[in-house]
Specification:
alpha/beta; RNA-binding; 472 residues
Length: 472
RNA sequence: GCCAGGGUAGCUCAGUGGUAGAGCACAAGAUUCAUAUCCUUGCGGUCGAGAGUCCGAUUCUCUCCCCUGGUACCA
């Protein structure tokens, strides 16, 4: 049996999840369900990047102890997954003891390879924001936008650095050769373009003061904490036993695919393989990079106040309706505009009038004529498989909806309501076969709906409640 | 600034050196098994602007305009 290990990104848990997170979860779940259906043993991991300074700041603002704060928000991410009908086999918390040990082990391996050294970092530090800024990020007076009037201090601090520059050629080769495959192609080119400019060493630690004593302690240096990316990426390993359970780790690692958003590709395509190369560990096989949502044409942001809550949408339209919109309504690798108006349009056109209505009309015909379904159909439509293997979910679904349209047309041509006897039975059985084929192919995408249809179309067929009541 | 991608029907997008395509939306017709549904037909575009190559350009070349993304220790 083939193993297949995939992950979602490790998200900041400084705020509740929005539709963008939901999109990524659904995409990962489709891959997971498909791999399972074709017989792989699959593990899906997600997790929370709980060690970021942003969490500390957000917790302070909310007036909640930091651990309690990240626990609460991590739970919201897990709850969202459940509501989307997704099961994370592992949800690895960055603040867990096991993760700390695992990340320290990774650090020690990199250090033993001679790739970690101490160096002074100088930068412009804003006390109000508690972070460093590049000159380009400041206003004309050299002040930060959040705290105008206040001068930034030039702060120097000893940090640990990782010799990223050493791995430049190896990483270029990995990406070019697709040994680390990046989907889609244009993201791969972006990464190569970035590498071409030359890789510099990166800081991978912070002083306790700046880190507010939060985060993974650096081994053998009580004054420093790991910079979040070093340990956050390692969640992919710590969650499957790196540093705690060798048997489990050897079974699942390396990851077959990391599903991530475009904003963090550099960390996954460059930093992450470099850390692993340094530590002498296996590398993930591929990255699947999705785009971001805009909302009614605008960037989603807390300041604009247009952050869309996926839970509300699930309550309004149902899990599968939302899953369908994510998968069909936007190309899987591009940016998509989220609009509720569009969601409603797609719901009525494709789910109510298309799939739902087709199932209802065939079910009624079968009920009236005492038709039973005997066999089960497990045949993948070629275009659906093709779409899935390339992560082009919208194209896969399009193929299924072509089947739906063909079946509708066939019913109109055959006019079963005018037939009788043997001919009628034969026509209806053919329609039942088509419905089963459609719902089988639908399984990775709309699991609840698929189950409902397959249940309705096994044994004696009866008409039932509409799958997707038409919205007015 | 530099690098990459894009500007095609009201919307989302596909596509080609030879009189422009799909789905949705909209309109009409026909049908009744069905969720006022399905089916058929129709409406709808100087294919970002200009110039060049060619018998012929939306498709190739150049210039310009606009949009999106990337341009690292901030995430």
């Amino acid at each position: 049996m083939n193993k297949f290990y995939l992950t979602t990104a490790i998200h900041y848990v400084n705020a509740p999840p929005h539709v963008g997170h939901a999109l990524e979860f659904v995409q990962a779940d489709v891959i997971k369900r498909y791999r399972k259906l074709i017989g792989d043993e699959v593990l899906l991991l997600s997790g929370g990047d709980e060690n970021a300074l942003k969490n500390v700041q957000a917790a302070e603002q909310a007036g909640i102890p930091i651990q309690e704060f990240v626990d609460q928000n991590s739970a919201l991410f897990q709850n969202l997954a459940e509501r989307l009908n997704i099961k994370f086999d592992v949800f690895q918390k960055g603040s867990s003891e096991q993760h700390y040990k695992s990340s320290q082990k990774l650090w020690e391996l990199c250090a033993a390879a001679g790739d970690i050294y101490k160096k002074e970092y100088r930068g412009l530090y804003c006390v109000g924001c508690e972070q460093f800024y590049e000159p380009s990020e400041l206003n004309e007076k050299g002040e930060c936008f959040e705290h105008p009037g206040g001068k930034l201090e030039e702060v120097a601090e000893e940090n640990y650095f990782f010799k990223l520059s050493k791995y430049e050629n190896q990483i270029r080769e990995l990406v070019e050769s697709d040994k680390l495959k990046i989907v889609p192609e244009f993201r791969k080119n972006e990464v190569l373009g970035f590498i071409k400019q030359g890789l510099k060493d990166i800081s991978i630690s912070r002083s306790n003061v700046r880190a507010k004593n939060w985060g993974v302690p650096v081994p053998n240096d009580p004054e420093q904490r790991m910079y979040v990316w070093f340990d956050a990426l390692n969640i992919y390993q710590s969650g499957v036993g790196f540093g705690s359970n060798d048997k489990q780790y050897n079974k699942w690692w390396p990851a077959d695919v990391h599903v991530i958003g475009k904003g963090i590709i550099r960390f996954h395509a460059i930093y992450w393989p470099a850390f692993l190369l340094s530590a002498g560990l296996k590398l993930p096989k591929s990255l699947f990079v999705h785009g971001y949502f805009t909302v009614d044409g605008q960037k989603m942001s807390k300041t604009i106040g247009n952050v869309v809550d996926p839970i509300e949408l699930i309550e309004k339209y149902g899990t599968d309706a939302l899953r369908y919109y994510f998968l069909r309504g936007i190309p899987s690798t591009g940016d998509g505009d989220f609009s509720e108006r569009r969601l409603r349009e797609v719901y009525n056109a494709d789910l109510a009038n298309g799939l739902g209505n087709l199932v209802a009309r065939v079910a009624k015909l079968c009920e009236q004529n005492n038709i039973s379904a005997a066999e089960t159909y497990k045949v993948w439509c070629a275009d659906v498989e093709k779409g899935l293997s390339e992560y082009k979910f919208n194209e896969a679904l399009q193929a299924i909806w072509t089947l739906i349209a063909e079946t509708d047309k066939k019913i109109n041509e055959d006019t079963p309501w005018r037939l009788e006897g043997e001919k009628l039975a034969k026509t209806l059985k053919d329609l039942v076969r088509r419905i089963c084929e459609i719902s089988y192919n639908l399984r990775p995408f709309l699991p609840q709906t698929s189950d409902k249809i397959l249940k309705q179309f096994s044994g004696k067929i009866k008409s039932g409640e509409p799958l997707f009541p038409r919205l007015i």
